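Minutes, project check-in
Item: structure for the 253-residue chain
Input as provided by the requester:
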Amino acid sequence: MTTVTPSAAWSPWGWLWRTGLAALALAAFFITWRPRQLATWGQAWLVGEPQDTDMLAALQAAPTWAPPPPAAIGIVAGHSGAQGDPGATCPDGTTEAEVNRAVALLVQARLRALGYDAVVLDEFDPRLHGFHGPALVSIHADACLRREDLTGFKVALSAALQRRDDVATLARANRLKACLVEAYRQATGLAYHPYTVTRDMTEYHAFSEIAPDTPAVIIEVGFLGQDYDLLVHRPEVVAQGIVDGLLCFLEGN
């Protein structure tokens, strides 16, 4: 083993040799060094390989993400539309279709004024297929017969939903029905007749067309005969009863 003494390591010749090597290294660095190149090396070290310019441009041009708007409340104007029949018809020519539509438009306007989105749908509207929303109400009226016992309203939900194993949607549909019954009765003063609900109501076609988790009901707002004055001359009262029922359901009151 060779031992280097301190005097040999720090001799004048050794010091000159080390200084010369350092000077040569610095000279080589300054000859080849470029500030721009050094910046490029630093950038590459920080962010990796340069990104594709087209991809960067596409990302910068992409619109800012925003949550989708809330789904609209569906309001079916019973018997309206080119494919629907006019429904019940009175001797003076008043049809169920026009009464239903007038009420549906008032419901839509009042809901929108309160900040809710609502869409009026025809009886066989293609938008019913797969319709998804917080609620759907189909508005209808009963026969135009002048009989004291033919007065009042009724509300029904899907019979198929009651047979289906979907506890959550059934609970919401029942709550929508309960809210609508109570609010409509208070607003209009009409009696509720649950025992006159027909199969045409519980098997209503739209129930099988909308999204299965959309709570939906059909309401017969009254009889065009005995309740004519309310339905034809005071549709704003009818509409308010439906709006109040929807608010009860939507806001948990």
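Outcome recorded: The CA atoms of residues 107 and 239 lie 5 Å apart.
No further action items on this chain.
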